[in-house]
């Protein structure tokens, strides 16, 4: 599936679901823009479906929580990559031929 189509579909569903709860479409557009990915928007849609928040503040709070989770996940993955690279350096050395320094 084309990622632009997937993003547009997720954005459309999010805006529509926010409107169904009685909030303006502009709120949905801003939430979609801040979430930034179809997966995050789908998570927000699930929240809207199950919780049916009655205030814009609750919707924004959930958006911030989702964004925070995404940022934590990215930081964790970056730390894992750095740790993997560090372990490679420890196991394989720094690419310096130690014979040149054995004098």
Poorly predicted runs of 5 or more residues: none
Along the chain, the helix and strand elements come as HHHH
**Shape by Cα distribution:** elongated
Number of structurally distinct domains:
1
What is the number of strand segments?
A: 0
Strand content: under 5%
Helix content: over 70%
Task: Please identify the structural class as seen in this structure.
Answer: mainly alpha
Overall pLDDT metric: 89
Distance from first to last alpha carbon: 61 Å
Give the radius of gyration: 22 Å
Q: Mind summarizing the main beta sheet?
A: none
Q: What's the tally of helices?
A: 4
Structure description:
- The protein has helices at 3-20, 25-35, 38-51, 56-92.
- The chain has four helices and no strands.
- The longest helix is centred in the C-terminal third of the chain and has 37 residues, at 56-92.
- It starts with a helix and ends in an 11-residue tail after the last helix.
- With 103 residues, the protein is an all-alpha fold.
- Helix 1 (3-20) packs parallel to helix 3 (38-51) and helix 2 packs parallel to helix 4 (56-92).
- The model has no long low-confidence stretch (mean pLDDT 89).
- The chain has one domain.
């Amino acid at each position: 599936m084309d990622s632009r189509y997937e993003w547009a579909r997720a954005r459309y569903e999010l805006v529509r679901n926010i409107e169904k709860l009685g909030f303006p479409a502009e709120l949905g557009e801003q939430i979609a823009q801040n979430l930034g990915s179809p997966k995050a928007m789908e998570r927000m849609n699930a929240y809207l479906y199950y919780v049916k928040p009655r205030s814009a503040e609750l919707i924004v709070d959930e958006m911030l929580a989702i964004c925070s989770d995404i940022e934590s996940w990215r930081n964790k993955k970056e730390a894992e990559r750095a740790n993997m690279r560090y372990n490679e350096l420890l196991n394989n050395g720094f690419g310096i031929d130690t014979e040149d320094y054995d004098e």
